[in-house]
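Posting for a labmate who doesn't have an account.
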Amino acid sequence: MKSVHDCFEKDHDRLDGHFAEFQKLKRTDFPAAKTNFKAFMFGLQRHIVWEEDILFPIFERATGMVDRGPTAVMRQEHVLIHERLDALHAKVRAGDPESDAEAEALRGVLMDHNMKEEQILYPAIDQMLAPGQLEDIEKAMAAVPEPSCGCGHAHAH
C-alpha cells in the first residue's frame, strides 16, 4: 500500500465495478448479476469495517474529534448506506431484477460519500500517519475477514 488514499480509492473503484456489473446483468443474467452483487455487498461491508475500526480512530486520535467532525458524518452516512444496501439486498434475495429505485438510492449516497472520503478524509489521514503506520494499517486490514452470507459456501469475489 503506498497511501491510504490510493488503497481506499482503488477499493471504491473495485466495488463500483461490481455494482455496475450487477446493474448491467440483472435483467439478462441474474445469476451473474447476483454474484457481482454479493462481491459488492460483502466488499462494501468489509470496507466500512476497515474505515470505522482502523482508519477513523487514527483521525480521531490525531484531531481529538471523537463523535464529531468528518468521521462522525461518515459513520452516520454508513448507517444510511447499510439501510439502502439492505433494501437492495432484499430485491436480490427475492430474485427481483426490478431494483432500479433501490440501486439508484444506494448509488446516490455512495457517490457523495466516496467523494468526501477521497477528497477530504483519506488525504488528511495520509498526512497524519507516523512512519511505519501505513504497514500497521495494511496488516490490520488483512486481519478483517470479509463478511459472508452465512451459508457455509465460499463465494467467488
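Reply:
Got it, the C-alpha cells are right above this. The CA atoms of residues 15 and 40 lie 5 Å apart.
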